[in-house]
């Protein structure tokens, strides 16, 4: 009986895959062609498009750009997981330390709107306390 139920469930999911994939493929093809057409049109109609100030990594992240300090966050992203690992090794009886995932913590800041440091600090404290409470109680 369980085998028949599982077979029906798998067949149902298999049917859904075929129902939803063709529109996805068509949408992807249309989007790719529109992107290619727009890029081709811009390259043929805008004079000196490759001489603009925002084109090129040096003008964005290098000494000529406004965002050169962002490069330090790549170093933070590499070092931060090791700090959590060292904290876990230093305090092995604290089970919540191993639950800290730095890629998630650093990646979720992308979703935050531009705000002051006070806003970020309060969001981090509120998030930590609510997650810690949920971890303790549940």
Outline the structure in words.
- The chain is built from five helices and no strands.
- The chain is mainly α and 138 residues long.
Number of strands: 0
Q: What is the overall number of helices?
A: 5
The fraction of residues in strands falls at under 5%
Largest sheet: none
Structural class: mainly alpha
Q: How confident is the prediction overall: mean pLDDT?
A: 76
Helix-strand pattern, N to C?
HHHHH
Into which percent range does the helicity of residues fall? 55-70%
Segments where pLDDT lies below 50 for 5+ residues? none
Radius of gyration computed on alpha carbons: 25 Å
Globally, the shape reads: elongated
Distance between the termini: 35 Å
Secondary structure: elements and pairs:
Blueprint: H1 2-45, H2 57-61, H3 71-90, H4 102-107, H5 117-137
Task: Describe this protein with a few key phrases.
138 residues; 70% helix; 5 helices; mainly alpha
Write a brief structural summary:
The protein is mainly α. 70% of the residues lie in helices and 0% in strands. The two termini are 35 Å apart.
